[in-house]
TrEMBL record:
Pfam family membership, one: adh_short_C2
Native source species: Pseudaquabacterium inlustre
Name the record gives this protein: SDR family oxidoreductase
Domain of life: Bacteria
Xref: CDD domains: BKR_like_SDR_like
Amino acid sequence: MDLGLQGKWALVCAASKGLGKGCAQALAREGVNLVVTARGAEALQATAAELRTLHPGITVHAVAGDITTPEGRAAALAACPQVDILINNAGGPPPGDFRDWEREAWIKALDANMLTPIELIKATVDAMASRGFGRVVNITSGAVKAPIDILGLSNGARSGLTGFVAGLARQPRLAGANVTINNLLPGAFDTDRLQTTLKGAAAKEGVPVQEIAARRARGVPAGRFGTAEEFGAYCAFICSAHAGYLTGQNLLMDGGAYPGTY
């Protein structure tokens, strides 16, 4: 299927690896020009070089920096001639007990997982509307649907973004101008973040990491972890010309792990 994205420009945050990279790869296959950002310059440049090699027909700009800062956002936006597609993505805050979190921890979580996406949306959607096309995908978490007790910082910040998007996406000046805003909620995907979590659990229990991974995978009805490639393919479809009637939605991709009906 031709997704109708040839020649568009996308800003993909946290794109050096993991789910962000999966999204960048999928968009590149559709002929989308890219601005990719991440804090780690070396990994980001390697990803950009890989994308250029595999897809010589597109332009790829790599902007190393912290997208959660005004300077990082300004640099990323300046590198993109126009933002037709915005993929908001940032690592989640650490787990823990809410009794141990001071105001600084909450502000940091809100900055990364709520306020930064809102700032980038604010900077881009009106221009999208004026051109008659725009796609915003916020990578949040399956925990928005089924909160995880030790991830209170993430639960709170991402739920705040979810509520904000629910109102904004339905504004006629955006939805009526072919600008869609959706949230993509990953479950357990085989990324560096998951591997770090598994290693931590294995160390705590004193068992091989493979045992922890197998146990966790058995808890997913699909019987496995997701891949960044399939996540990226779904993201690319949400950004496609065929998805203009899809907006304001929380799209869960978790191998069937969420047990609810709605």
